[in-house]
Design goal:
CATH architecture: 2-Layer Sandwich
Order of helices and strands: HEHEEEEEEEEHE
Largest sheet: 5 strands, antiparallel
Radius of gyration: 14 Å
Number of strands: 10
Number of domains: 1
Structural class: alpha+beta
Distance between the termini: 24 Å
Strand content: 35-45%
Shape: globular
Number of helices: 3
CATH topology: Dna Ligase, domain 1
Helix content: 25-40%
Length: 128
């Protein structure tokens, strides 16, 4: 039902079993979210591949001292209940250890970037 939640959970689960890469179906929104995760260092690499008229995303997982960078994910805004936050109302995740990602008019941004650009939007998920 929720392609973003499925994507995040697949990445989290692949990290727990120490996989190097994950292959997922392509969508522009998933690509934007994964690009934001790449900028913040939660994934190691991101590639868009085409195979027989089928587009896919090849995601390289990031590890830090043998542990996956994405240990847990919490979907905040769900299809059944949307959650929004202004630039002044963004909160810290796990006392600054984690990060929050938002869908803004400027694109998908981390909370840190959204505060810098002074934009709010839909709170997509928290990751730590």
């Amino acid at each position: 039902m929720d392609p973003l939640a499925d994507t995040l959970i697949q990445i989290k689960n692949a990290g727990k079993i120490r996989k190097e890469t994950v292959v997922l179906p392509y969508s522009r929104f998933k690509h934007a979210v994964l690009t934001a995760l790449l900028k913040e260092g939660y994934i190691a690499s991101l590639e868009k591949k085409s195979r027989k008229q089928k587009k896919e995303l090849l995601i390289g997982l990031a590890y830090e001292q043998g542990k996956p960078r994405i240990e847990e994910v919490r979907r905040m805004s769900k299809p059944s209940r949307r959650q929004y936050a202004g630039a002044k109302n963004l909160w810290r995740v796990r006392q600054g250890y984690g990060d929050m990602f938002l869908s803004t008019p400027v694109g998908v941004l981390s909370a840190r970037e959204a505060k810098k650009k002074k934009v709010g939007g839909e709170v997509l998920f928290e990751v730590w």
